[in-house]
Amino acid sequence: MKIYFSILMIFSFLCLLAQEIDSSSTNDITEIVRTQEDCKKHFEKKKKRDEEEIEKLKNINFENFFPKLFELQEFKNIKSNKIKILYLYIEDGIPIANNVKNYNCIEYYNQISFSIYQKLWNKENYKRFQKFFKNKIIIPSIYSNGIRIKEVNGNLISADYLTENDIKPIYEGLYIDSENNKKKFYYTSDKKPKKELELYLDKKETQSKKSLIIYALNVFPTSYMDFSNVYFFELELYNGEKRIRKELFYQYVNNQWKLIETKN
Predict the structure, then answer these.
(1) Where are the chain's structural domains?
(2) 65, 86, 159, 193: which has the highest count of C-beta atoms within 10 A?
């Protein structure tokens, strides 16, 4: 009788254990399905928003934004600065993956930044920039994925941007790093240089800091209170002595840029 009772107890225990395992497996499957659904929703949401912003961008005119930039005191200070070389960081907006954290989701690659780059830094707008800073030598340098201002990096310097946009004339210079490695770079200037322009870094990496003004501008659409068509402009400058960072919120309305807020 005792043996029969023991077998019955073991059988009951195994049944309960099987139910728990089955329940656990069901929960795991449910969680996987839920996660996949969340990933899909997230992907579609990002894709839809991106497509909407790209469609809006077709009616955005960045050509009349540059005069707004040139009104800023920071730009006037650059123009009057005795340093003659302006190192211009241009973000190319190479698509960046957007993932749901902690989940193995299918990646969605943001396209709006690249579309902004194409409109913001086209040939006509570069010429506007060049005309305003006609007293400067301008070295455009393409970068990706939100890299912030750093010292001059020879690996970033190429003629691609200038040649792709058919910007002429362009001149050739020589970049020399702290290990005495040499690399050509390309720049624009209103005046034809009398000799080859050289940039170099000494062992303390201070030379290029003193001889250059470094400028970067990041732009992307954003939401701001109840305003529509708002763009966030992040301005970064290094004027040879200190770094300056400024955030500007502009609304694009009636083919004009209206400043909403400034943050230093």
Answers:
(1) 61-263
(2) 86
